[in-house]
Structures are given as C-alpha cells and as structure tokens.
Amino acid sequence: MSGQESESDTTLNEIERIDKEYVFGTWSFQSEVNPTEIVHTDGVTFTDANGNEYIDFSGQLMCSNLGHSAERVTEAVSEQINDTAYVAPGFTTEARAKLGKKLAAVTPGDLSKTFFSTSGTEAVEAAIKIARFYTGKQKIISRYRSYHGATYGSISVTGDPRRLAAEPGIPGTIKAPDPYAYGSTLDPMQSLDYIEEMLKLEGDTIAAVLVEPIVGSNGILVPPNEYLPRLKEIAHEHGALLVCDEVMAGFGRTGEWFGCDLFDVEPDIMTMAKGLTGAYQPLGATIVSSEIAEYFEDTMFCHGHTYSGHPAAVAAGLAAVETYQSENLIEQAREAGEYLETRLDDLAKKHPSVGDTRGIGLFRGIELTKNSKKRVPFGTREDKVSKGSTVVDEVASKAYGNGVYVANMINTLIIAPPLTITNAEIDDAVTALDSALKVSDNAMEEGLME
Ligand code: PMP
C-alpha cells in the first residue's frame, strides 16, 4: 500500500522514500526493498548520496565490464543521440552495420548474423524462437542451475527458483542436472550422461540444448574441459542445436571473449547482453551460424522489436567492443583473474565457512558452508525465494558496510568486477571481504554448538 512507512524507511532519504513508494524493487518483498540513491560512478567505484564510496566488486549486475569511466562509449552514445536519436529497425545506422560485422568477427567460427534486442532475456527469447523455427521442433533442454531471463520464454527455460512463480510457463521446456562438482550428488560428467539419456528418450523432438557455458548467477560453475565439446556432440547427434547463453560470461569476463572460447566450442546460436555495451546502454544480441542465417533467406524471420538495433544502444555496443580491443581488456582480465584467484585462496584458507572458491578470470564465486565436511549450505535455493534473507546476504551486507559491493545468490558471493580493476583494488576489496566473512564463520560456530 502506498504511503505506508516501515521502520527501515526512517533511514531512507527523500529520493529513496519516493522511489520505494512508487517503483517496484525487482525480485523482492516490496516491504524489504530499501533502495540506495547513487549519485556518481567512476572507475571501479560508485558513490551514494551520503558521499560513501564503494568498490564495485560485482560490476553492478555482473555487467559493468568496462568500469564506469569508459569515455569512448559515453561519447559515442551522446554523439549518436545528437545525430540520429532513433530510426525504425527497417532503417540502419553506421554503428548497427559495423557492430553486426564486429560481432561476427569476435564470436567463434561461423557465427555470422545478429538479431539485436534490448536485454539478455530478449536475446534468449529470440534464440528459443529461432531454434524452433529452424529445426521445426519445439522442446528446449536447459539446466536446473541456470538463469536465462524474466520474460515468459526465458523464465520457462530458467532452472533456478525464480521460475517457480511463473510456472508452468511456456510448453516444451525440460530441465537437466548441472555440472556442479561441489554441491551435486552427480559428478559433472555424469550430469552430461543424464542429458544424453534425455536426448535419447525424448526422441526427435528437441530443438535445442541451452546452457550458460560458465553458470553465472547460480553459483559460477565451471565445467570440466571435456563437458561443452561433448555436449555439442550429443546435441548434434540427436538433431538438436547448441545454444550458449553468454549474457553474463561474455565479453572478457572469463579472460576470453566468450565462455565457450575456453573450450573451443562454437555454438549454433549465442546470446549476449550485459558486457556487450558494458551496461552503458541496454542492448541484447542473438547471433546465429551462417547455416541458420541462410534458412531465413526464404523463410520469414517472424520476430522484431521497436527498439531492435536502437541507434544509441548499438553505438554503445560498437564503442564497447572497440574498447575491449584497443585497451586489451580481455588479456587484462585473464591476468587480474589469476591474481584474484590467489587472493580468494587466501580467504578460503583463513575462513572455515568458505566451502569452495571457484571460477575463472574475473568471474568467481565464494560458496559458504555451515558444515565444511558435509558441505551444508547456509541457505537453500528455496529459502531464498520464501524467506528472502540468508547468512550470505548478511556477509554481503557487512562487506557493503566495509565499502565493497558484492552480489550474492543463494549461497554464493559472486565476484565479477570491471575488467579494468587493478591488483591494489582487488586487495582493498579482499580486505573488506576478509572482515565480512567473520559473520559466516560466527554463524558456523553457533551452528556447531547447537
Ligand atoms: N542470461 C543470463 C546468463 C543472465 O545472467 C541474465 C541476467 N542476469 C539473463 C540471461 C537475462 O538478462 P536481462 O536481465 O538483461 O534480461
């Protein structure tokens, strides 16, 4: 109900109170939403209305890959808006054509033609439709520990509990187990055998197998090297396409352009967003192989949006991709990632509640446990949906109090800073986490005494 104040409202400033009253907070009990007004971003930091500065150790929503001072991108956007603010998708702009060509160059192998949208979820919606049109089949296999977006098709192929409120969702979606070495009863390659079995048992009905090559918000899961190549093989053996959702893993996050590059796998369709513009503009993209592109020469491409290829968004995308290249940010992420790994290992040695540290490049997770032998999580996937807050939230909130913003999901802290982060900034952030992890260490000890 509008106009009602909860106790926490008293700590909000006027803007934050207005926002809380009139704007929905995402994925939250609205009574618990306490928006913080941000007034400035710079480099790898952001500043709130009280003048407190924070290290952005998660690149906001794992999307600010370029940091917050990418002038080439801001200039490209403002020039574009001043020049040609908007044209319908039937027209084109220089940036749209050039970005299409660039994406064909930086994505693996034969991926060649792009459909532009404005978000990750729309990129996935397009991938689902294209896979269905092209194969003439309907079903999509995806995995339980996955997130592919909030709109109906994407939330239906999403495996994590965010899907539950939208179920049964669109027809023809099937979920498979994941390569989750730390927490699953199946070992990663066994989970792949399971998918192979599903493909056999479903007969010739599967349009695509859709995966995040490195699982992002569901815990930063890196599969064994043989996993993705074998997944492509078994999908193709059964006439299904491989769709890689690179919305979070793409654009240097892993120290390669794309997650699938780590395994030398070329998907049939790839989805992108987030790092595509480094979050300077909302832009999603779905790129397909030349064979799939060719199919639509004489078959209608039944898809489109008003803002498909929006001039300012593609201008941001083009300038962002040029920035990754000219600033060698992919290599930089690889090196910074190696340093980050050593620092997270330090935390794992020191804190009993750190069950696992994992990841690659600047895409890493710290999974917490209240019992390291039995690997018991502090909060389950279901807790997160029903109760909202878990011990991991408290650790993240303590880190925030120490000047470091770190995202968290279910039982894992997610570290995905701008690729521009320095070792000294990593050290500062790790110091703040070091102190915050005492919260989970203490919670673990209290549990042991129960
Ligand atoms: N796919 C993946 C892998 C994602 O991580 C996300 C967002 N976190 C999405 C799709 C959806 O992107 P968006 O929020 O831009 O719709």
Automatic annotation (TrEMBL):
One MF term in the entry's GO annotations: pyridoxal phosphate binding
Highest taxon listed in the record's lineage: Archaea
CDD domains: OAT_like (cd00610)
GO cellular component, one term: cytosol
Cofactor(s) the protein needs: pyridoxal 5'-phosphate
Protein's UniProt keywords contain Zinc: no
Keyword Cell inner membrane: no
Keywords of the record: Pyridoxal phosphate
Entry's family note: Belongs to the class-III pyridoxal-phosphate-dependent aminotransferase family.
PANTHER family: AMINOTRANSFERASE, AMINOTRANSFERASE CLASS-III
Protein name listed in UniProt: Taurine---2-oxoglutarate transaminase
Organism: Haladaptatus litoreus
Lineage: Archaea, Methanobacteriati, Methanobacteriota, Stenosarchaea group, Halobacteria
